[in-house]
Specification:
Blueprint (H helix, E strand, L loop, with lengths): L2 H18 L20 H8 L3 H8 L8 H10 L4 H11 L6 H5 L5 H8 L5 E4 L5 E4 L1 H6 L13 H7 L1 H6 L3 H15 L7 H13 L1 H8 L9 E7 L3 E12 L2 E11 L1
Antiparallel strand pairs: 1-2, 1-5, 3-4, 4-5
Helix pairs in contact: 2-4, 4-5, 11-13, 12-13
């Protein structure tokens, strides 16, 4: 979807949500001159503390200058569900300011338990690519990472800063470069977050290979495919990788390795 189509889709979505919101829900009188259901543009603009003209341009897809805070006010005024709010920000290409609140919430036990109930190697990554849960097969596979009681649990730090990773991953140089491109694509809207910036700075300092890959600005969608390993005790191993998102916590990624 190009930028023009995206702006029009955003405006159409906001308009339909406005027309579906009953004035009575917000304590507004129906009024004798209401010819259509839902809120008027003037009323929603007032609730969002933005000008009617600017709000009209948003609905008409005529402006690209809608800020994340303004979108958040629109989402709150429209009383959007979490799914609709996520869709609103996805259309806008902006980062939802409320996402930080979600990140601070603990991950439910039932989500953490998913990886442990899979029979093949599986691990769960958070927004910063830290492993937050994994099963026994994954611990047995990833020598120097998930089998360690201490040390970095970040996938990027393991890949670039742990000697065992360079031996374990068969095509390490190619996979490592691709991993950085996938991370950039995954965190494109988050690069200004302090924790992301600190992680990137630390990796650039500790790994020349990471710094070269990061400075190339390559972007690749995180996909599955064949993964080959040279395990120190299990020998040559081959898997097909499958990546899954957690529906109600999309910042979490479940990685499953199926025997090839």
């Amino acid at each position: 979807m190009d930028q023009t189509s995206r702006r029009k889709a955003l405006g159409a979505f906001i308009k339909t949500q406005r027309l579906q919101l009953s004035p009575a829900e917000l304590g507004l009188g129906a009024g004798s001159r209401r010819r259509t259901p839902g809120l008027r543009r003037e009323e929603l603009a007032q609730l969002c503390n933005i000008s009617v003209t600017w709000y009209t341009w948003i609905e008409q897809g005529r402006t690209v200058s809608v800020s994340a805070p303004a979108l958040a006010r629109i989402a709150e005024a429209l009383r959007l569900s979490p799914a609709k709010r996520a869709y609103l920000f996805e259309l806008s290409g902006k980062k939802d300011p409320s996402q930080q609140d979600i990140l601070q919430q603990e991950i439910p036990d039932e989500i953490l338990a998913v990886a442990s109930n899979i029979k093949t190697p599986a691990y769960l990554l958070d927004r910063y690519w830290n492993a937050v849960a994994w099963n026994r097969p994954a611990r047995n596979l990833f020598a120097g990472w998930l089998d360690q009681k201490s040390g970095p649990k970040n996938l990027l730090e393991y890949t670039f800063c742990t000697p065992q990773a360079m031996t374990l991953i068969s095509d390490w140089e190619q996979r490592a470069r691709r991993l950085v491109a996938e991370f950039r694509a995954d965190c494109g809207l988050l690069l200004d977050e302090p924790q992301i910036a600190e992680l990137v700075t630390r990796l650039c300092t500790n790994s020349a290979a990471f710094k070269r890959a990061w400075n190339s600005h390559d972007v690749i969608e995180k996909e599955g495919g064949e993964r080959r390993f040279n395990h120190p005790t299990l020998g040559q191993l081959s898997y097909q990788q499958v990546n899954l998102r957690v529906a109600n916590r999309p910042e979490l990624k479940l990685v499953v390795l199926l025997p090839a």
